[in-house]
Amino acid sequence: MDHFLYRDGMLHAEDVPVAEIAAAVGTPFYVYSTATLTRHFRLFDEGLGDMPHLVCYAMKANSNQAILRTLAKLGAGMDVVSGGEYRRARAAGVPGERIVFSGVGKTREEMRLALEGGIRQFNVESEPEMAALSDVAQSMGMVAPVTVRVNPDVDAKTHEKIATGKKENKFGIPISRAKEVYAHAAALPGVRVVGIDVHIGSQLTDLAPFREAYGLVADLVRVLRAEGHQIDRLDLGGGLGIPYERSNAAPPLPTEYCDVIRETVGDLGCEIEIEPGRLIAGNAGLLVSRVIFVKSGEGRDFLILDAAMNDLIRPAMYGAWHDIVPVVEPAAGAETHPFDVVGPVCESGDTFAKARALPPVSAGDLVAFRSAGAYGAVMASEYNTRPLIPEVLVHGDQFAVIRARPTFDEIINRDTIPEWL
Ligand SMILES: *Cc1c(COP(=O)(O)O)cnc(C)c1O
Prior knowledge:
By secondary structure, the protein is of the alpha/beta class. The protein folds into 2 domains: 4-31 and 282-412, Lyase, Ornithine Decarboxylase, Chain A, domain 1; 103-274, TIM Barrel (Alpha-Beta Barrel), CATH 3.20.20. It contains 12 helices and 21 strands. Helix 2 (34-48) runs parallel beside helix 9, helix 5 (108-117) crosses helix 6 and helix 8 runs parallel beside helix 9 (254-265). The longest helix has 19 residues, at 208-226.
């Protein structure tokens, strides 16, 4: 559910007409709904209910500080995957003790940064990383709290580029080697084991892989406790999918996902952490764009937009679907026509949709891509010297620009021409 609905024939973001934002900030732009972000966070927070827990928003999905602050004020922690994200979370006001640090390639500088600033735990993904972290912490006179990310070799049944829980993926240590790795960690002076971490992939639309992975984690808790390790915390990752295509069957709800957690690991007396990203931010955002031209080709018609693959790369990168809707509500029963929806970038890959059935649209009209709040703005680039587009946050009848469009001077002046030229 989201808060982008037609009202009086016009698409609104909460109580603000989308066209009003377009008039104020120009197109293209992203717009996010505070109410949707809040609702999604609460579904998880309340779904975990009486289990001791912390919902650590995976901020790589959308790391604008206004989004982070919105969630942090509701009690969210953060899952960060780089020193940059750590700094950004802290700048947004998130305390270190609510930040978990994931990722396969943490550098010693990043470890030091998080130890200095405060960290809830490092989710360690390999033995070399464990050794490096122990070294760094010891050199600072500290002991780093760690979980080990285990790879349960479970098929997440999602797009191959975002599946992370199979043995051929680069993530985590094989669950079959966990005993050995925990024994190794226990012998290191600069780390203290606090729990287990797992994350099997993104955009999962079936609960079965979660159930399987969490069941394996529950077995591992018993094995490790029998070996004398203290396992107090389970970080169960993120990955619950969202309905990108409204005509499809809806994926499981956060409450159903939380029930799987309760059923598989609820009786172990562990504190539960989860790291949802896409489900919190995805349906909380639209990408709004204007039609530049309608171009008739041979056997197909193109809708050429002012948004492009550099603004929203998911269709080009994953073949992803986004629902595209006109900002002015089409008349009931309006006939549709198939369009290839494309951007102005000089690549055929700059295609958002092929033969998409859309109601009548003309040059100058506004259209909105739904479910663009996660992995949209954060994956944008300035390819073709197209400025990063503004982000806007709506709250009831108010809206604010939370990242402004840079000027062309700002972009161009970032380059330096060497003296010898
Ligand atoms: C990407 C990622 C997440 C978030 O995944 P979503 O599908 O956005 O929920 C959580 N944890 C880790 C370690 C990740 O890499």
